[in-house]
Amino acid sequence: MIRAGILEGEFYAATDETDDILGFAMTMPKGRILFSTDEQKKLGLTDFMARLSEEGKKWYTEEYLKVFPQFVAKCLEPDTMVDVWWIHMVFTRSHDQKQGIATGLVKMIVGQALALGHTIALSTTLAVNVRIYEQMGFKVIGHKVATSPWGDWSLWVLRYEVMQ
Fold first, then answer.
1. In what residue span(s) does the N-acetyltransferase domain sit (predicted)?
2. How far is CA 138 from the centre of its chain?
3. How deeply is 33 buried, as exposed, middle or buried, from its count of CB atoms within 10 A (0-12, 13-18, 19+)?
4. Which residues of 118-156 are buried (b: 16+ CB within 10 A; e: fewer)?
């Protein structure tokens, strides 16, 4: 996912004085969709799919690729994922968490998108992240519990709301 995002999206890394990566964020700005081109798919998705069990491939193609995009589209109406600046990944190394690294990366992305007049959105599967994003000004615009052969999982979609 990261290599595809770097190809046609944007990747930001927070580093220390020795250039060790402490955290990163990967986003697809307005007008771009992750894995929408063959070039992007060749940078990880194709290999990922080849490694899945038959059950995993079936679930991914017949369920996930329908459930996730449809739910996100419903949440973003009248916008779509191509109309927004979508934050795909935000990560901080475990021993570097709670230092504002991820928050700083997200705020930088929000600032860039807002300067262009773009809407920012993202999804998360963890309730703890919902609270963190809400503190940054994001608002939950949808929540769904989805099923898979390996168990249920929650999905929240959030959109950045300009604080008044």
1. 81-138
2. 13
3. middle
4. bbbbbbbeeeebbeebeeebbeebeebeeeeeeeeeebb
CATH tag, 2-160: 3.40.630.30
Closest CA to 123 of 28, 53, 54: 28
Q: Positive or negative, the Cα torsion across 132, 135, 121, 6? A: negative
Q: What's the rounded Cα separation, in Å, for the pair 72 and 68?
A: 6
Torsion-angle region of 162 (φ positive above 0: left; ψ -120 to 50: alpha; else: beta): beta
**Cα gap 89→35, rounded to integer Å:** 14
Domain-wise residue ranges, the chain: 2-160
Phi, psi for residue 94 in degrees, rounded to 5? -55, -40
Q: In what order do the strands lie in the sheet with 153-160?
A: 10-15, 21-28, 84-92, 119-124, 153-160, 138-146
Strands 138-146 and 153-160: what pairing? Answer: antiparallel
| Cα diameter, the chain | 50
Taking only the tens place, the pLDDT of each residue in 118-154 is: 999 999 999 999 999 999 999 999 999 988 888 999 9
Q: Is 76 helix (H, G, I), strand (E, B) or coil?
A: helix
